[in-house]
Each structure stands twice: as C-alpha cells, then as structure tokens.
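Sequence in, structure out.
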Amino acid sequence: MDIDDDDRIAYAMSETEVLRAPRQNLATFGTTNVRYFLLTKPAYSDLISATDDTVIREGRVISERPRVVTPGYMLNLQGFGDNARGYFKRLISEYGSSVPGILYHYRNEQENLNIVSGNVLSVMDRIVKDVGDDPLVGIIRGVDELWDISLLKFIHDLTARSLEGNLRDFQGSGLVSIDSSGTTADARQSIEEMFQKVMMKVGNPNELKRELDRWGLFSEYEDRFLQLFR
C-alpha cells in the first residue's frame, strides 16, 4: 500500500460517521444479524454541483458466534499473509502461544443499492421512520468511492463496543481457561459440538479435521475421529 492509499483510507475513516448505532451489542453465544444502511453522496456530485442525491447501500453484516482463540491457533488459520503471520509469531514470542483472545468472524451480505433524492440527513430521517425501534439497525454516513472502508469502520466500532461484555460472558462461563495442551475451554466445547454434528450427518468432517489440526489436537482425537467412518 502506498502513501496515497493510506491517505485515502485515513480520509474515508475520518469522514465516516455512525448516524445511528445498533442499540444491541454482538451476541456472545450466538449469531448477530445487523441490518445497515450506508449513505453517501454519489461520486458524480463533484461534477454536478446542483445535485442533491444520496446513494443508499443496504445490507446485512452477519457476525458469527465469537471464539476464544490463542496466537498459536491463529498462526494455523488459513487466509493470512506473511505480515499477519509475522504478527502472530511476535505475539507468541512476547506472551506465549496460549494467551487467550476473542476472534470475530463476519460476512457482508449486500442487498440493495439505490440513488434517491435528498441529502444524507433527510434520507436518514426517512429510514428511521421505516425501521422503527429495531435494535439491530445501523445507519452510516460514508464516502462513496471508499464505502467498504466506511462499513469496516462501522464494524470495528460495534466490535469494540461489544468486546468487554463478550469477554465478561466468556469468563463467567469458564470458557477462557486454557488446559495443559494450550487449548481453550471454548475450543473443547466447540470441538465436541462439531463431533456431534458429524455423527448426526449434519456436520462436515473435513472442517472438524481442520479445526483439530489448527489446535494441534488431531493425535489426541484421532481414534474417535476415525471411528466416525466405521
């Protein structure tokens, strides 16, 4: 990423404003479905000064159940580049491979894109009337050409707001504890649930195998895993 890219991202983040934050935080022990409306001035407004249009990007951010993980687990998780892997190695060298943390996983489901007349604030007022008191609706004012950065900032803010409560729930349930193998109690519970789903033919054995490998636990569960296919 060059300096220009950094400046553009910094600009998009500084210009992003959450006009209405969801009143409900991310669930600790379940999936959270947040509906969002991302409002921007259209990129062509710089060329047509008289326009008073607003772009509405409507979608849903699906937050899967958070997981209690460790740097050692993250090092084995696919999808990270060399820089991210170097970061996790540094965490391991400084704090050990078993220090617990919370991993959030999201997916964005875009639903509608419309251009309507009216400025951002007037459009927001219309949306607020339509959605009523729904506690899982967010309205964001962002930057049109960098709307995804605006959405990421919204997700970051919601995550940061939810983190303390999620951690408190995990601690209260004893799921942050680490056993002698460096595995969290949350992971042990998740693995048990995955075994049950595979036995009931509703789970994916390949994903179970990958999860055991990420925690370095396949040898411990190998006989039980192979028994699933006998």
